[in-house]
Write a structure and sequence with these properties.
It is a single chain. By secondary structure, the chain is an alpha+beta fold. The chain folds into five domains: 1-132 and 221-266, no CATH class; 287-292 and 302-408, no CATH class; 412-578, DOCK DHR2 domain, lobe A (Serine Threonine Protein Phosphatase 5, Tetratricopeptide repeat); 586-735, no CATH class; 744-862, DOCK DHR2 domain, lobe C (Methane Monooxygenase Hydroxylase, Chain G, domain 1), CATH 1.20.58.740. It contains 33 helices and seven strands. The chain has helices at residues 2-8, 10-18, 50-56, 83-99, 102-111, 114-130, 139-162, 167-175, 187-191, 197-205, 209-241, 247-263, 268-292, 294-307, 313-334, 338-354, 360-376, 385-408, 413-426, 431-447, 451-472, 505-508, 518-535, 538-554, 558-578, 615-630, 667-670, 737-757, 763-774, 782-789, 800-827, 833-855, 881-891; strands at 586-593, 604-609, 635-638, 654-663, 683-692, 706-718, 724-735. The chain has a six-stranded antiparallel beta barrel with strand order 1-2-7-6-5-4. A hairpin with a 5-residue loop joins strand 6 (706-718) and strand 7 (724-735). The longest helix is centred in the first third of the chain and has 33 residues, at 209-241. The protein is elongated. Belongs to the DOCK family. Residues 425-859 form the DOCKER domain. This is DOCKER domain-containing protein. One of its GO terms (molecular function) is guanyl-nucleotide exchange factor activity.
Length: 892
Amino acid sequence: MKVKIAALYLPLVGIILDALPQLYDFTAVSGKSRTSGSDEEQDGPSAINQNVALAIAGNHFNLKTSGTMLSSLPYKQYNMLNADTTRNLMICFLWIMKNADQSLIRKWIADLPSMQLNRILDLLFICVSCFEYKGKQSSDKVSTQVLQKSRDVKARLEEALLRGEGARGEMMRRRTPGNDRFPGLNENLRWKKEQTHWRQANEKSDKTKAELDQEALISGNLATEANLIILDMQENIIQASSALDCKDSLLGGVLRVLVNSLSCDQSTTYLTHCFATLRALIAKFGDLLFEEEVEQCADLCQRVLHHCSSSMDTTRSQACATLYLLMRFSFGATSNFARVKMQVTMSLASLVGKAPDFNEEHLRRSLRTILAYSEEDTAMQTTPFPTQVEELLCNLNSILYDTVKMREFQEDPEMLMDLMYRIAKSYQTSPDLRLTWLQNMAEKHTKKKCYTEAAMCLVHAAALVAEYLSMLEDHSYLPVGSVSFQNISSNVLEESAVSDDTLSPDEDGVCSGRYFTESGLVGLLEQAAELFSTGGLYETVNEVYKLVIPILEAHRDFRKLTSTHDKLQKAFDNIINKDHKRMFGTYFRVGFYGSKFGDLDEQEFVYKEPAITKLPEISHRLEGFYGQCFGAEFVEVIKDSTPVDKTKLDPNKAYIQITFVEPYFDEYEMKDRVTYFEKNFNLRRFMYTTPFTLEGRPRGELHEQYRRNTVLTTMHAFPYIKTRISVIQKEEFVLTPMEVAIEDMKKKTLQLAVAINQEPPDAKMLQMVLQGSVGATVNQGPLEVAQVFLAEIPADPKLYRHHNKLRLCFKEFIMRCGEAVEKNKRLITADQREYQQELKKNYNKLKENLRPMIERKIPELYKPIFRVESQKRDSFHRSSFRKCETQLSQGS
């Protein structure tokens, strides 16, 4: 019976297809029509298409020839249908498609041209959004909405009555065309009480919770049934498209409808069948889909990955199987599924950031399921596929962990930047995403006024762009990848595109953003130069513009060249005028101890803080922040820098050890680090000292004062794209008391040399250093050090070398003191002559006291290592070769 009824209504299908441009667009975000903002049907005649007339006459599905379609008519020649009318037409269409003779439906689809098949797919796309399950509304919410609507209508009625017009006046006003002063008051409201909003509202509010539940159940069943019919229609179209030449466009349309259905709320029953259809589509037409429908495949990855986080076990298992097949087929088709890797990775980033119903634990389970599939897939074990899947899933787990953690650490700037850094690092093979995250990091740094780090983020972004531009274009004026950026920072080499998963920009369609162009590269470098200038790193500005100028010259952009050279001149002027007045970062070693820190437990970092940051400042900041996290009573700052013994710590507390550190250089490095900037740039090694005595006290007398020098090596060089870098190596050197004295005297001598040679001269600085060197009130000053270690020659021969080295240090020290006193004499004013005389007196006294100790040498050090006995050259005592040969000839 249903088949016969459906046959009677077959002409309606043609009418609906021709009316496609008039249908209400349920996919629009605003909920309004695609081409009209009105929800109401408009009056006026509607043109009937020739095909529709033929269909009404009994020529069913004769849609091969196309007359004047409604979509080609001007906007005002056809009317838009409202949501209810469109929904009713959709229900009729789907009912006919389900109950009509299926052999007739398949024959009809097979005979249709591709244009009409695409129209059917457009109609199915709207159907999916039309019958999306909206969920169950509570009766309280409905009652609230109804009450509000009733109040609005009541207010309009009162306003109409208070206007003072009678029934005649109101009737005349209604008959006047174009009078819409009160659009909410139509004739139905006054004269047909059974159709007023009052009556409708009261009826709706009378519904019980059971009735609302029943409506929700019917709505859910309708959504499932409608989508299953839509799925059957798509499978019929897929079968029909196999014989057509233009099946690529039809497959794209089918995939678009499937992706749209996955983005809507669906039942488990439908999702099971939908994923089965998807897997069949991938298995049969995978090559075509991966080559022609790149954007659709990216959307598909995102939707499937979203269902991998579903709370329903059945849905998760279906989604996992589909995603695994997607990866497996892409590998089989291209022997490298780099693009699918990128799409899945990008999908995860979007999913975690935007999806409100995202569940981390369920997604982790799905990733483990996919890993199990790859391990048990015997056919792929001889290929690199299982290894690549494992790497991808490991990367996804890392991104998932870091992105979720970001929500927890919004108030911890260092941890937040660490997480952003790790996410950017995980996108190493997805240049577009990595570039985006580097720019996000630059923005965060700029807000915190960390301009140098923000500039470094943009330099890394520019190096990434240069790396991919070098693959596309072979121009001599372009940077040769990230190698060209080494003079700016040694860290930039990590942007090198040397991975096996690196995507080729010309083949895979990546790097399509506006920054992956020559102008984009110049823009990133110019932004970096501005930030370096703001941060006071003027020397680096010069290095950045060395990369920009060749590009501008090649493009003959003389206007930009003019402004670039102006900026360079300002940078060089600042170097000349502000060289020693600039203040770079202050560095601290921070160690975390305690299980409360989680991943940070027993980790050590070097923090870069703003210039002139004191130890109490960073200590107060970190103690306050972690006190809020764990409770102030559970956080304790370790005051000294001695090695931490975890066995002596309270397991219920979180301990932070903070130590001031200074950049450390070997002697050979100091030859290349001449300027103040060079001594504060590209830093990887830092040192801090820990004084101690053999008795366990931190301080003692000079002869018992030992020192432990600890040299830390960080993973990257400062400045970097983040303000804290983990420590990867620690070296310790214990200095004996005499070695401690040697280091102290070297330091004092260096301070004197710097103060003497400073240009322009600084009298205050010179006098301060002099006072600390020759002042009579200096405790444990140079004289006491000399009396302790140089008064007598040590009994242990092993100390001879140290004794002599300290003696030479004092010799140079007293010479520098004399130079400083003489220079101070030339700098002082008339009112400081007495002060100068006092300094001279103290200097002479110190010199006289040190003289006997400085001049005393250890004789053993000046003896030759081995004795060379001199012999006179006596040719009579030696046999020449000629004489030897003569003797040999005579003997023979």
